[in-house]
Design a protein that fits this description.
The complex is a heterodimer of chains A (221) and B (342). By secondary structure, chain A is mostly helical. Chain A contains ten helices and two strands; from the N terminus they run H-H-H-H-H-H-H-H-E-E-H-H. In chain A, strands 1-2 form a two-stranded antiparallel ribbon. Chain A is elongated and about 100 Å long. With 342 residues, chain B is mainly β. Chain B has four helices and 18 strands. The chains are: A mainly alpha (221), B mainly beta (342). Chains A and B meet through helix 2, helix 5 and helix 6 of A and helix 1 and helix 3 of B.
C-alpha cells in the first residue's frame, strides 16, 4: 500500500515538474499594433494605397472595359463552355451594358476604394508626431490619389472629391475634373523624389501623368 | 491609449449593428365538436421584421471597403397568413376505428420600403452563367422572388427573345421582372388512419402550391448549343425544333418551372396477430407485421428530380430560395417489419 502511494506521489511530482517549463518563444510573424515603431505603423497605414493596384488591370476589370468594348478584343459565346458569363461580354461589346454589369461594378469598386485610400491627407491629423518620419514617402503616396482619379475620369468621366472621410464625395466632371487633377499633381511635384524604384510614385511619374492629362485634356473637357 | 491604427479604425465609423427586430401577432382558436370527434384550430399570424441587416454597397463609393453591413431602418419583411387544422375521429363499436385530418397554411410574404431597387441573391452555377443572379428582393414582392428576364420565345433566326420591360429596345438587366416566388402561397398536409380488427393503415400526404423552382441544372446542362460543342445533353435541349443551334442560354424565365407538388410521404400497412388465438402467447406476447412505403409517389409538373429542393446559392449573406442545381432525387423506400414482444 505504502509502495503504491510513493509511486503515485513520484509520478505526480514528475508530471508537475515537467509541465512547468519556461517558454522562450521567438515570435516570427504576428500582427500586433503594440510592437510596432511609429514609422512602421505609419507605413502600415499607407500600404493599402498600393495594395490593390494590380487588381484594377485584370482581365475582368480594366481590360474588359477598355478592350472588349472595342474591336480590339471579343469574347464570343461558344456554348457556355467558356466565358459566356450570362452575356456580359456580348453586352460590353455591343455597348448595351447596364449598371448591373459585374465587371463595371468591380472596376469602379476597386477604383473608388483606391481613391479613398489615396486620400491620405486627412490622416495627417492623427499622425502629427509621425509626419517627419513619413516625409520621404508621404508625397509619393499622395501621388496615387490623382492617379486613381485620372483612371476614374478616363473610364467613367467623373472624379470623386472627398477631403474628409466623414462626408459624402462631390462628383466633378469635364474641365473641373481636369483642373482638379492638374492642381493635385502640381502640388506634390516639388516634394516627390526623383530617384525611387519602380512601383512607386517618382518625379517622372508625376510628369508622365501630367503629360497624359494635357494630351487628353481636350477629350476630357 | 489607442494606437494610430486603432484610432484610424474608429474614424472609419464602423457602426454598431443590431439584429433585425421582429414584432409578431398571433390569434388562434381551438375547437372540438361532437364529443371531440371533430376538432381543429384556426391560427392567424402576422410577423413584421424591420431594421433588416444587410451587406450593401455604400451610396458614396469612395469608402475604404467595397461593401459594408448596415441596418436598413424602414425596410420591412412581413410574413402573414392563416393556418387551419381539422381532425375527425370515428370509433365504431365493432372495432372499426378511423381518423382523418389535415392542415393548410396560407402564407403571404412581402418586402416593403427597401431603398434598393433590387437586392440580388442566388448566384447561378455552371459554365456560361458566371455572375448571373436568380433571386432578387424587390419592393412589393415576397422574399425568394425570382427576378429574371422574361423569356418570350424565339425570333425568325431561332434566337431567344425576351420581354422588353423598360421599352428601350434593348434587352438588358433592366428588363428583369419579378417572375414569381420560391415561397409557396399554400402548404398542406393530409393524414389518415384506419384500423379494423388486426389491420391498420396509416397514410401521410404533403404538398405545396403557388411556388416556382429555378432549374439551374437544366439551364447549365440542357441547352441546344451543347450539341455543336459535341457535348452530351438531354431531349429537353432539342425540344424546340425552330431553336437555333447557336442560341445562348442565359438565366431567364425559360428555366423557371412550377414547383407545386403533392406527395404520398408515408404509408404503413400493419397486421397485429392475435397471439392468444394462435396459442403462442406463452412465448410471444405480441406480434405485428408491417410494410412501410416512403415517398411512394409525387404528383408534380416539375420535371427536375425533386420539387422539394433548395440548393444554397447565397450571396453576401442574403439567402437564396428555390434553386435546383445538381441536387439528388429523393429515394423511394420500402420497409418490411416484424415486431415480436416476448
Amino acid at each position: 500500500m505504502k509502495k503504491k502511494l510513493y509511486i503515485l506521489l513520484t509520478l505526480t511530482a514528475i508530471m508537475v515538474v515537467n509541465s512547468c517549463t519556461t517558454l522562450d518563444e521567438t515570435i516570427l510573424d504576428e500582427t500586433s499594433a503594440t510592437g510596432l515603431s511609429d514609422k512602421q505603423a505609419a507605413e502600415g497605414i499607407i500600404a493599402p494605397v498600393y495594395a490593390l493596384l494590380p487588381n484594377i488591370f485584370q482581365h475582368t476589370t480594366y481590360f474588359a472595359l477598355q478592350e472588349i468594348s472595342t474591336d480590339e478584343a471579343i469574347l464570343p459565346y461558344r456554348g457556355g463552355t467558356d466565358w459566356g458569363d450570362n452575356g456580359i461580354y456580348l453586352a460590353m461589346h455591343q455597348h448595351t451594358h447596364t449598371s448591373t454589369d459585374p465587371n463595371l461594378r468591380k472596376t469602379l469598386g476597386i477604383l473608388s476604394c483606391k481613391v479613398c485610400r489615396g486620400l491620405l491627407r486627412p490622416l495627417m491629423r492623427y499622425l502629427p508626431s509621425m509626419t517627419h518620419l513619413l516625409r520621404p514617402t508621404w508625397p509619393k503616396q499622395e501621388g496615387c490619389g490623382p492617379y486613381y482619379s485620372m483612371l476614374t475620369l478616363d473610364l467613367f468621366g467623373l472624379v470623386f472629391v472627398k477631403d474628409n472621410l466623414g462626408e459624402n464625395s462631390k462628383i466633378i466632371r469635364g474641365d473641373e475634373a481636369v483642373e482638379y487633377i492638374k492642381k493635385e499633381l502640381l502640388a506634390i511635384e516639388p516634394d516627390v523624389d526623383a530617384n525611387v524604384g519602380p512601383g512607386r510614385v517618382s518625379k517622372g511619374v508625376v510628369w508622365g501623368l501630367l503629360a497624359r492629362l494635357y494630351l487628353n485634356a481636350a477629350v476630357y473637357q | 491609449m489607442l494606437s494610430p491604427q486603432e484610432r484610424l479604425i474608429l474614424d472609419w465609423r464602423i457602426p454598431i449593428f443590431s439584429g433585425s427586430v421582429s414584432t409578431q401577432t398571433d390569434i388562434g382558436l381551438d375547437f372540438a365538436l361532437f364529443n371531440g370527434a371533430l376538432s381543429g384550430t384556426i391560427d392567424y399570424f402576422n410577423k413584421v421584421s424591420n431594421n433588416i441587416l444587410l451587406e450593401v454597397i455604400p451610396a458614396d463609393p469612395v469608402q475604404p471597403a467595397g461593401t459594408f453591413w448596415t441596418n436598413v431602418k424602414d425596410m420591412t419583411i412581413t410574413n402573414k397568413g392563416l393556418e387551419l387544422e381539422l381532425n375527425y375521429r370515428y370509433i365504431a363499436q365493432k372495432g372499426l376505428r378511423f381518423d382523418i385530418g389535415g392542415n393548410i397554411t396560407f402564407i403571404n410574404n412581402v418586402v416593403n420600403n427597401s431603398p434598393y431597387s433590387v437586392i440580388p441573391s442566388g448566384s447561378a452555377s455552371g459554365s456560361g452563367l458566371t455572375s448571373a443572379t436568380i433571386n432578387g428582393y424587390v419592393n412589393g414582392q415576397p422574399i425568394g422572388t425570382f427576378f429574371l428576364k422574361q423569356f418570350t420565345g424565339f425570333d425568325d433566326k431561332g434566337l431567344s427573345t425576351y420581354f422588353d420591360a423598360d421599352g428601350d429596345g434593348l434587352i438588358t438587366d433592366k428588363d428583369r421582372i419579378a417572375a414569381g416566388s420560391a415561397l409557396p402561397t399554400k402548404q398542406y398536409n393530409l393524414n389518415g388512419s384506419i384500423a379494423y380488427k388486426g389491420f391498420d393503415l396509416v397514410a401521410n400526404f404533403n404538398g405545396v402550391s403557388g411556388n416556382k423552382i429555378y432549374d439551374n441544372t437544366a439551364n447549365s446542362n440542357f441547352y441546344k448549343l451543347r450539341l455543336s460543342k459535341g457535348i452530351n445533353t438531354t431531349p429537353e435541349a432539342i425540344a424546340t425544333p425552330n431553336e437555333s443551334i447557336n442560341n445562348a442560354a442565359p438565366v431567364s424565365t425559360r428555366y423557371l418551372k412550377d414547383g407545386a407538388f403533392f406527395r404520398l410521404n408515408n404509408l404503413v400497412l400493419g397486421y397485429s396477430l392475435n397471439t392468444k388465438v394462435l396459442g403462442i402467447n406463452k412465448w410471444i406476447s405480441s406480434a405485428r407485421l408491417s410494410v412501410t412505403g416512403q415517398n411512394l409517389f409525387v404528383i408534380t409538373k416539375y420535371d427536375g428530380y425533386d420539387p422539394e429542393v433548395n440548393t444554397d446559392r447565397t450571396i453576401n449573406g442574403i439567402s437564396s430560395y428555390g434553386i435546383d442545381y445538381l441536387s439528388y432525387p429523393k429515394a423511394k423506400s420500402f420497409i418490411v417489419g416484424l415486431n415480436l414482444s416476448f
